[in-house]
Amino acid sequence: MSVTTVGAERTIKTGLLRGIAGRCPNCGRGKLFAGYLKVAKTCSHCGHATGEYRADDGPAYFTILLIGHLVIAPLLAFQFILTWSAEMILATTLPTLAILTLMLLRVAKGGVVGVLWATRANATQ
Ligand SMILES: [Zn+2]
User: Fold this and answer.
1) Where are the chain's structural domains?
2) What is the percent of the chain with per-residue pLDDT over 70, rounded to a whole number?
3) pTM, entire model
4) How many angstroms is it from 27 CA to the middle of ligand 1?
5) What separation in Å is there between the alpha carbon of 57 and the centre of ligand 1?
6) Are the beta carbons of 28 and 8 closer than 8 angstroms?
7) Concatenated DSSP letters for 47-79?
């Protein structure tokens, strides 16, 4: 059973911003995550059942989409891509891409859970 804040307006913007910040989309105060990517079963502040929202592959999809368009494609504009050896390019770009991807994945998961909250797309309804 989920606890909903009385009178709270469920907008996609609210859910998205609270989720991206790693906060409970229902109250904006409790922590959304109980681990790196594990969503807490309930909010520690308002008791909302945040664990009911199943993001599935959505966060990975959005992470790939954003990293591909905002990082990989612009890399092709730099001259070092054409002049450095493949080993040098991989040694410098792969760790950076891995860190960026892991950082963005958590943010994307929070955003997806926030949108699921706004659209009432939890598993029990
Ligand atoms: Zn909450």
Assistant:
1) 12-118
2) 91
3) 0.84
4) 4
5) 24
6) no
7) ---GGG---TTHHHHHHHHHHIIIIIHHHTTST
* Torsion-angle region of 39 (φ positive above 0: left; ψ -120 to 50: alpha; else: beta): beta
| Confidence band, pLDDT 50/70/90 cuts, at residue 122 | confident
Q: Which residues keep their CB under 5 angstroms from ion ligand 1?
A: 24, 26-27, 30, 43, 45-46, 48
Q: Ligand 1 centroid vs 9 CA: distance in angstroms?
A: 14
Give the CA distances from residue 12 to residues 3, 25, 77, in Å, rounded to whole numbers and listed in that order.
Answer: 19, 10, 35
pLDDT, tens digit, 9 for 90 and up, residues 34-78: 999 999 999 999 999 999 999 999 999 999 999 999 988 888 898
CA 105 to ligand 1 center in whole angstroms:
21
Contact of 121 with 2, CB cutoff 8 Å: no
Residues in CB range of 100: below 8 A, 6 or more apart: 67, 71
Token pair 């990989």: residue:
72
**Three-state DSSP state, 31:** strand
